[in-house]
Each structure stands twice: as C-alpha cells, then as structure tokens.
Amino acid sequence: MSNGLAMAAAATPAAMPTEAASAASGIDTQAFDRKVRAQDDLFQAANGAWLKATPIPADKSSYGAFEQLADQSDRQVRALVEKLAASPQPDGSVAQKIAAYYTSFIDLPAIDQAGLAPTQARLDGIAAIQARTDLARWLGENQGLSNLPVNLTVMPDPTQPRVNRVMALQGGLGLPDRDYYLKSDAKLRQAKTAYLVYLSTLARLSGESQPERAAARVLALETRIARLQWDKVADRDPIKTYNPMTPAELAKRAPGLDWPQFLKAGQLAEPELLSVRQPSAVVGLAGLVGSVPLSDWKLYLKLHVLDESAPVLPQAFRDAHFAFRGAALTGAKQALPRWQQGISDVNGALGEAVGQLYVAAHFPPAAKARMQEMVVRLLAAYRDSIDGLSWMTPATQAAAREKLAKYMVKIGYPDAWRDYSKLEVRAGDALGNSLRAAAFEYRRVAQRASQPVDRSEWEMTPQTVNAYYNPAFNEIVFPAAILQAPFFDMAADDAVNYGAIGAVIGHEISHGFDDEGSQYDGDGVLRNWWTAQDRKAFDAIGARLVAQFSKYESLPGKAINGRLTLGENIADLSGLQIAYKAYQNTLGGKPAPVLDGLSGDQRFFYAWAQAWRYQAREALSLQLLSVDPHAPPKFRANGAALNHDGFHEAFGTQTGDAMFKAPAQRIRIW
C-alpha cells in the first residue's frame, strides 16, 4: 500500500497557456475571482478567473495544476525521446530501446497493416484451453499482462517488512468498480450499457458470429465477479487485508482454481507463505474458475485481451477503445495525440531509463537542496505538533515521535537506476514490445518473493507529477517533476512554497499517521502501538472528518464518501497544519512582508488553493466518486482550510461567512 498525493490523470492533452504568477509574490493573482471572497469560498476566490478562462481541452477529462505539470513533463520527455530516435543508437543500448519502443508505438500505418497478427498467439492460447488445468495455467502465465480475476504480486510482508511476500488479490472487472455492476444509479447503468456496446464491437471485430450474445455472456460473468469483490472502504483496512496462509491452506479454502498450476505458471511455485488480500472474494473467484463454463471464460479472456491490446491494434479497435474508455467513462471529446500516448507507454515500460535522461536535463541540484531543507523543517514542525497534542497520552506520543524519527526521505530520483538490459525491444513491434515490457516488470517483481526487501526502490518515476508515502518503508517520496511551479518555485517567497509544496510534504508525512498509516510503526511493521484510549480519541476525531466530507456533493445528489476519503482528508488537514507551522518558524518571529497587497499568511492559503485548481467532466467525476480515495480538489482546498485557525485569522472570517467555523468546532488531529 502507498498513499499518493493526487488521483491518476485520465488523460494529458496538448499544452495550455501557463499561469502568470506575480513576480512579487509567486501567487497567480490573475486567476482570482474578484467577486468571491476567500471567507466564502477560498478555492473559487483563488481560481475563479482561471476556471472561467480555461476550458477543459477536448482530449482531456480533467484539467488543473497537476495536469498542466504532467503535460509539461510529457513535452520535456518527448523532446528527449525524439532526439534519441532522430539518429541511430547502439544495438541493445537503453537509448536504442527507448527510441524503438516509442517509434513503434506511434507508427500507426504499420500497426494497421499488421492487423490482429501481433495478438494472435495469445488468442490461440485462449482457444486451446480445454480443461480447468489449462485455464489455471493461462491465468498464471498471463500475470502482469492482464487484469485477471485473481492477480499475483510480491510486496513486503506487513508484519515482517524486510521480507517480500507473495500476495493474491481480487481483480478482473472491465468497468472501473463493482458499483458500476451492482448499483441502480442511472449514470452507472449508462456506463454499463456503453461497456456492453464496446464488448460487442470487440467480439464482432474479432470474428465472433454472435457478438451481442458474446458480450452479454462476458458482462454476466463480470457481474458475478463484482458481487464477490470487496468494496473500496473495506479494502482500506490493513488488518483485514493481511491474511497469511500456506499454499496448501489456500488450496483447501479456495477450491476450484488449480493453485499449484496457477502459482507455478505465475513464476511463484511453492511460496512458503502468501497473503490473500480479500479472502472471501478470492475464495468465491476460485469457485467461479471451477464452475463457470470454460466457453464463457474463453470469451471473457478473449475480449479482455483485445481490450487491453486495443491501443496498439488497428484503427477500428482504437476507435472503439476510446469511445468507451475515453468518451463514455471520462467524458473526453477526442483521444490524446498519439505522441502523448506513446510517451505514457514508454514511461510505463522504461520509466527509470527515461527518468535518468529527464533528471539530467530538468532537475538542478539546487532544487533538491531546497526541498531537503523544507523537509527537515516540516519534520521538525510535525514533531512539535506531536509534543503539543492534548488528546494523546505520553506513552503513545513517545511512540509517535519514534516513528517520525525513522522516516526515510527520497527526493527527485533513485540513487541506483533500474537495469533494463534483459528487456527485449523490437523495432516495428508495438504490441510485442508492450507485452514483453509487462512480462519483464512482472518477472522482476516475482523474483523478489521470499527475498530481502530492497528499500532503495521507487514506486514512481522521476518524471511523474505526484508524491507518496509507503508505510512498509516508512518513507516519503517526491519525484522531480512535481518540484515545479505552482507547487515549488525557487523564485517564490516562503509563504507560497510552504503553502504549496510544503503542504504536499506535510501531506505525505501525515499519511504515516492517518487512519491506515497509523497502524504501522516506525519500522514499517503492522502492529498496534497505540493505547486503547488514544485510538478511541483518534477515531472520534476521524469520525468528525468523515461527517464533514460526507456532506459535500461533488455532483448534484452525489455526496463524497467520507469513509473512503478519510486517509487523504487527514493527510490534507494535518499537512496544511504543519506546513503553516513550518512557515511561521521561517519568519523567526518577524512579520512577513506584504506583497501584491497580500499578507504572508494570505499568500500561504492562496498558494494552497491554487495548487488544487482543477475542473473535471461529469463522467470522470462520477467514476472518481466510486474509486478514488481523494476528495475532489475543491473540497480538499476548502475542507482543510476551514478547520485551520490560521486561515480564519488571515482572512478575518466572521459568523455568516460561508467558510466560517467556530473555533470549538474546528477539527484538529495532528
């Protein structure tokens, strides 16, 4: 489990005009909505003019600060990759692999001419399934290549985080979440209807004689899978999702799937132990493998393979893929430009190799040094916050300080780069390259089983615009690409940097003490280091935050799931609190200068709100309400600020202001 700062972008379009930040303060004052007071809506006051002047691009389902930086990162990576592709590279070199991977992906005439030939071997393998053992073998051999009903991975054991353990977990749905199959909501039903059309199109294009019937059979099977799956809230509980057992015990509890054959084909034969993340679901899914007619499973696998391969199949497949996964599910009006799809693909396949080029070109040492200084200040502020807690007993405070002292910090890029020498990339073989890259990555992960954990590894590439906390490593990680305006600006004053990237740092630190992360100690061990009294007090505060966010409607009649978003809301609230404290510490008791007519504290909160500037299409917003543990950005910006004493003091809120909250009602956790 890791906790990222932001949702994954559904798409990243061509460039939009960048913000015109004030040279004096670093705040984009041109983005302000002068008709809205920060006391009534901080997000709108900070971003209203920008929202009005910045339509969501046609090839995008959302747009905001994260997406703008992701676009910039993609353009920068494109320049590096196309420079490699412009001249011959040594055979077998990383440079040659990057260039060949990218140029193969964007060569649409070659992809169209190849037809279904590149995927025929996988389709033939599905057609050859004649027995349940064959099905188990196929499911094992295709781990990492497909989203299967039961997926395998290798992760640190939550109770022994220095040892890697095999994990089995639920999967296999073509729609974003079980809610799309099981709820009667009209918008979700509309998406399910679009999925049925998409499955029918894939069946027809691949030669099925009764495509509508084939699609209906696959949807019926997926609905049975959905009924078995755990929902997103249950899946957040690290105690309930840790279920170690031997392979023999699992085979006895979950008959129907030939587990020895499955694990062997998945390159994980005879693990000493494995953990089943959602045991009741995996038991039920194994039963489906053993009972659903093989003909239905073969149709299911065929259409899923075609769906996953569609971006590198002929145009009819690509068009159908966008009509469903782009337009129907996210509201995008047109597909991303092919070059940008290619950059995304090459980042996925050779991410750290590309990242090494990116860092050399775009991440100066001074930026890393400034970030390291800020992290030290944020950790010190968090330590002060722990010392000042009124609701926590001394014993648990001491344990919290001990955990904080053990935080590992990674900034910019890994110390050691990943080795891609054994990854084969062939010119002109877009689908083959994708499959080999996925198999290479799965093999790399599978080989870690029962081996010591390599704590130097990163879960994100340097060119990723995001950040995360990893409880097993007890680490906070900040890739290079997020360390740019509007989050981080070497030329901006401290108020702006602490309100933006400082709150990001604080957010990730706080994940170690949210409702999930707080169940791990400073060594990454899943254990209870709290007194019962303290945990009860913490849960009571969390319940108030759940209630606050559950009242917000992201869409008309569609409330945020306060329980699903609790961890991120705790991290936002606590991160903003300690970022503010760290900023105040930089002043040394002296008043901040007034810049652009704004006090230092006002600049701090405007920077916070502008970091969350964002707008999204309805279809994507609906999807994120079901699957995303983050609240929509507007509510993240306002929801944390209205609990912050500093916000109310900075803007002089009063009774009657929409964002006023009486001091006694403000939620304070860390």
UniProtKB/TrEMBL annotation:
The Peptidase M13 C-terminal domain covers which part of the protein?
A: 466-667
Q: Which cofactor(s) are needed, names only?
A: Zn(2+)
Any Pfam family hit: Peptidase_M13_N
Q: Does the keyword Nucleus apply?
A: no
Domain Peptidase M13 N-terminal, residue spans = 39-414
Record keywords, A-Z: Hydrolase, Metal-binding, Metalloprotease, Protease, Zinc
SUPFAM superfamilies recorded: Metalloproteases ('zincins'), catalytic domain (SSF55486)
Q: Where are the coiled-coil regions? A: none
Family membership: Belongs to the peptidase M13 family.
Q: What is this protein called?
A: M13 family metallopeptidase
The root-end lineage is:
Bacteria, Pseudomonadati, Pseudomonadota, Betaproteobacteria, Burkholderiales
